[in-house]
Amino acid sequence: MYKITKILIALLLIFFVSQKISASTNYVSKSGGNIPPFDSWENAATNIQSAVDAASEDNLVLVNDGTYYPGSQIDVTKNITVKSLNGAKKTIVDGENTSRCFYVNAGDTIDGFTITNGYSTEGGGIHCRQGGTVINCTISGNSGGGIYFYLAGGIVENCIINGNSGYGVVCYSGGTVQFSTISKNSDGGVFCNYGGTVQNCTITENTGANGGGINCNQKAEIKNSLIINNSASGNGGGIYMSTPASSAINITFANNTVAENSATGNGGGIYSIKPIESYNSIIYDNAASADSQINNNVATYYCCIENGDLSNSSITNNPDFYSDVNFHFVDGSPCIDAGTNLPGIFSEKDRDGKPRVLDGIVDIGCYEGPIPEPGYLIFIICCLSFISRKFITGA
């Protein structure tokens, strides 16, 4: 009798767990039956908001291919994940230039969409109120900026944020942007107000009044990023750092490459109103009417800076980039093993996602180590091919 009871209990547990699993996904498809709770492709909702409304905490809302026109912002505030089935190229949310595309809160994730034609004064593409995560998305062509983090952080990762009217990303009082490309946004790439972290990003071809690439006010952390080909009609083609006169600036700037930016005013590479320190960074080939690389409030330590001075272990040598469009190093670059190992550096990654320190001392700039020459790559491939044939054939 005891064994029978145990078996019955086990069967009941399996039943309830399976019921929970089967109800953990809510489906969206342009060809769905639109039958709540949208628990299969046949019964799928035909719009994303309906499936979100039907979802319970921790559910997955899975969205099939197609272009969705929500008509008003999609509110995602239930600790759920909204994910496309086949990625951003095939799943599009279009705000039709009349409304924001997504409103997200802490604990919610948006994964794998093209988010376009959104309209709002605070993030036409996505507004993250108190956090939230945005991954694997393309956020382009929105008015009022691409993504707006208002309070208490949030994460953008592996995203393409380009061609938005306004900033690509606004970190009003926090937020992390990492392993993403921010390009061709009209007010600048990133604005960090009372906080925000930009790491392992490429920020390129953005324009702005001050700070074409990044505009920082009071607090920010910028690390392991490539900041190139941005322009400002005022100061700071690559980066502009400002703070109210009564405030203390708190900006960490380390292991970045700032190159080929321009400013109509001062500071083609970096312009700062108050004294800041830059570590392990390359600031080269920038242009401005005055202070082409940096203004005199930027102190450089273990940096490679064009026409700079040699104090604080910095160098002025040409960094020997691989090409005008590839900012990896050639073998023998003076920037290799020329930085200083700041606290926490061994846990960081370079812009390519490789370990930040390869040979005991960190390299200057956002990339670690030289790019293999084509001939060297061919040699490696031939060796591997020979070894594999020997291993397989036993010859």
Features:
395 residues, Pectate Lyase C-like, single chain
CATH homology superfamily name: Single-stranded right-handed beta-helix, Pectin lyase-like
Decide which structural class fits the backbone.
mainly beta
Unreliable residue stretches? 1-23, 375-384
Described by its quaternary structure, the protein is single chain
Give the helices and strands, then pairings.
Layout: H1 2-22, E1 25-28, H2 48-54, E2 60-63, E3 66-68, E4 74-76, E5 81-84, E6 91-94, E7 102-104, E8 109-111, E9 114-116, E10 126-128, E11 133-135, E12 138-140, E13 147-149, E14 155-157, E15 160-162, E16 167-171, E17 176-178, E18 181-183, E19 188-199, E20 202-204, E21 207-208, E22 214-223, E23 226-228, E24 231-232, E25 239-242, E26 250-254, E27 257-259, E28 262-266, E29 270-272, E30 276-279, E31 282-284, E32 287-290, E33 298-301, E34 304-305, H3 374-393
Parallel strand pairs: 1-2, 2-5, 3-6, 4-7, 5-8, 6-9, 7-10, 8-11, 9-12, 10-13, 11-14, 12-15, 13-16, 14-17, 15-18, 16-19, 17-19, 18-20, 19-22, 20-23, 21-24, 22-25, 22-26, 23-27, 24-28, 25-29, 26-30, 27-31, 28-32, 30-33, 31-34
